Amino acid sequence: MPLRTILVGLGRIGAAYIDDKAMAKTVPYVTHAQVLTDHPAFRWEAAVDISDAARELVFSRFGVEHVARTLEEIDCLGAIDVVVLATPPSFRLPVLGALPNLKAVLVEKPLGATLGESEAFVQECRRRGILTQVNLTRRADAAMQGLASGGLKERIGSIQCGFGVYGNGIINYATHTVDLVRMLVGEVTAVQALKRSPEFQEGPLADDKNLSFTLFVEGGTPVTLHPVRFSRYREGSLDLWGEKGRLEILQEGLLIRQTPRDDCRSLDGAFELASSRSGLESTGYGRALYDLYGDLADVLAGKRIATCSPCESALVTDRVVHAVLASANSGGSVVEIRAS
């Protein structure tokens, strides 16, 4: 029987991005509305948003039976199995209390507006035994999973160093890149904001920052991330330099570019990265949101033990990004990441 699902929040990732023509060319599943319409494991039962236009879009285009301004107006809350939370972070924890028989939650990052809110969200899900899946979408991409399970080391050897680019805020967007570093390179043990890094504010969260910082990964591998203004162009990338090659994850995860090692053209007995032999390949990022839902459904059906992006892992990423902000606020000191 399909899982009866309510979508709370009908903004861009909830439904509105469906009319972005450029995005539709490269990302078949960019909104929760698209996945809930197509995925056979879910029955889209209800939707909630304060926007009249957003509710009308969902009702007229998708034919959702129960569409309302508030949860209190929905009369089937007791029958809901899954809630998809695409609201601003501070509004998420109260939603759980209105759904008494909830089996699972699929939630946007960050889990809370503050680290304390994120921890409270995780604790409530644990207390009630609610299965969690966080929309750190790259964790559901088969290409990224292959790299994480040994493919990265096989391709380019052990990582020597890494670089990345993000925009629209550390908490808002760099969370994705930080989480990808954790997935592919290893757990982050400490962070440091670059002392003389240019800092600017651009993005949807008022208190968020854009600045350069270094992640120190277990084993000592440094990965430095730098911001760019999305108002000029968008890019979320990760550039990893291994012992026997280089691998770049480009265009927000849509492409991989690998550069092999070869004999050096200017010195006998040495090696170089053969840039002229770099090769591009597509990832599965365009379907990753759909696959994130499928992974959740498989765990609920007993086909898998754990989701690919549980809230416990997302909370670790939240701690890392908040540590970056703490480092910046303290003038660039090294901040260790606490285990729990």
Explain this structure.
The protein is built from nine helices and 16 strands. With 340 residues, the protein is of the alpha/beta class. The chain folds into two domains: 3-134, NAD(P)-binding Rossmann-like Domain (Rossmann fold); 139-284 and 318-335, Dihydrodipicolinate Reductase, domain 2. The strands form two sheets. Strands 7, 8, 9, 10, 11, 12, 13, 14, 15 and 16 form a ten-stranded mixed β-sheet that branches. The protein has a six-stranded parallel β-sheet with strand order 3-2-1-4-5-6. The longest helix has 19 residues, at 311-329. The radius of gyration is 21 Å and the shape is globular. The two termini are 37 Å apart. The model has no long low-confidence stretch (mean pLDDT 94).
Summarize the model shown.
With 340 residues, the chain is α/β, with parallel strands linked by helices.
> What is the total number of structural domains?
2
Number of helices: 9
Question: How much helix, percentage-wise, in residues?
Answer: 25-40%
- CATH homologous superfamily grouping of the largest domain: Dihydrodipicolinate Reductase, domain 2
- Second CATH tier, the architecture of the largest domain: 2-Layer Sandwich
Tell me the layout of helices and strands:
Elements (H helix, E strand, L loop, with lengths): L2 E6 L12 H6 L5 H7 L3 E7 L3 H11 L3 E3 L13 E4 L6 H6 L6 E4 L7 H14 L2 E4 L7 H15 L2 E8 L3 H15 L3 E6 L19 E5 L4 E6 L9 E6 L2 E6 L4 E9 L7 E3 L5 E4 L5 H13 L10 H19 L4 E3 L4
Parallel strand pairs: 1-2, 1-4, 2-3, 4-5, 5-6, 7-10
Antiparallel strand pairs: 7-11, 8-9, 8-16, 9-10, 11-12, 12-13, 13-14, 13-15
